[in-house]
């Protein structure tokens, strides 16, 4: 758990982060969204003390982060940044092993961890362990960057626009990988992004920042339904709002009995995917199947459209 | 074939150089036409091998000392605590460079006497600037994301310096050392004016006795040494830099 209490950072008297308080629950993803200059990156960097707060307290699992030396604090917190920041003079394996080596793990344990992470990220250890970062593609570099951040099995992972430099196809894959890994390790993740779409997709809760202030910190559905200020509303984008709202839930609750023609969708697909498929194929209903492919029923256009309406406050 | 030729030429130069400084008399017929009045065609006032080794030793000593001081200084002024010394150290090193080595020799002789010492001082001062400037450039232009990652992964300041900053700066620092060595090789010859044992002796002996063959021999050995050492260090630099691959090659 990360507790942030009236945290302020001033540069030359001007607050960049202004009295921000928020709590990130264990094993969840908090996405901090804002435009550039909103203070979101500064807020993130204060959690591992790359920036020292001017005022306020951060507690991790109840412990004030100022109680231990900054470098020790950072070894316990994974950190992944835009443009990955891999050490160009070190191999993939050496890069991933950075924090374990600093923490004095023995060699066998480090090697095992490196291979485990490479396999997790679908990079064949035999082929990739001894390569240098410049011999990898952008997507592979990004994966190694996140693997490095996760190597010492941190409870907390901080990510600063980790997918910013990736093309849309690789980015979607990287986001899905992150969610898989988050579920597997139960890592608490704080992620900074300027992309509301990404925040809604990944975040259990979304923090919207502007001008150093935390405008709203709530679950995605709440942010979409009841934006706290005009700025939050602008950030959501009124044109995309119903579709983003639909993208938050799976099909389960809207499946009804009955049959339908054509390609089925799995029940784990989002409502937005289903609506898009219905509109594009010109159908009124489509069959829904469970993970094993057994038919569960169908979902109709009408049912989905109903769900897209603004929920009653 | 294209890659083989330059290597073959350098190898030939190296072999020729070794044969020349060990068995110079083999080349007597080559230098004979340059002499007048039956003067000796090959330097005969000492061993060329000994002078070459002494020449290399004085350059090596001065360069090692200059490297330690210049890199140390560059590290110091790029730490947050030493930043205010940056302008001062820059001007100090610049003075070292603009002061003519001959003047350094003239000033050093009364202080430390004739011989090797004034030459070492002159070479040391002259070698500081290229190494310092390069080390400074390298340490101040490290990629931001990499430094950020190094801090974020929990390295202490010292670990960051040893594991990230210096390895990344190494090729550029090496380029500074290379420049310094080449300047030193040429400059060391004037040390012989204050009785330092270097290849300058051969050149000076030639000038005194109006023997072009001597001048040429001294000059050729220094020139060949400079070219070979320059190339060897360039190769080392490329090797070190290749692992990190400059950005434009990546992708």
TrEMBL record, chain A:
GO terms for biological process: quaternary ammonium group transport. Residues 2-236 form the ABC transporter domain. InterPro entries: AAA+_ATPase, ABC_transporter-like_ATP-bd, ABC_transporter-like_CS, CBS_dom_sf, P-loop_NTPase. The keyword Signal does not apply. One of its GO terms (molecular function) is ATP hydrolysis activity. It comes from the Bacteria. Keywords: ATP-binding, Nucleotide-binding, Transport. The keyword Signal does not apply. Pfam families: ABC_tran. PROSITE patterns: ABC_TRANSPORTER_1, ABC_TRANSPORTER_2. Belongs to the ABC transporter superfamily. This is ABC transporter ATP-binding protein. It comes from Pararhizobium mangrovi. The lineage of its organism: Bacteria, Pseudomonadati, Pseudomonadota, Alphaproteobacteria, Hyphomicrobiales.
UniProtKB/TrEMBL annotation, chain B:
Pfam families: BPD_transp_1. The chain crosses the membrane at residues 7-28, 48-77, 98-115, 121-147, 168-192, 212-233. It is found in: Cell membrane. Its main location: membrane. It is a multi-pass membrane protein. One of its GO terms (cellular component) is plasma membrane. PROSITE patterns: ABC_TM1 (PS50928). Keywords: Membrane, Transmembrane, Transmembrane helix, Transport. GO terms for biological process: transmembrane transport. Residues 52-233 form the ABC transmembrane type-1 domain. Belongs to the binding-protein-dependent transport system permease family. This is ABC transporter permease. It comes from Pararhizobium mangrovi.
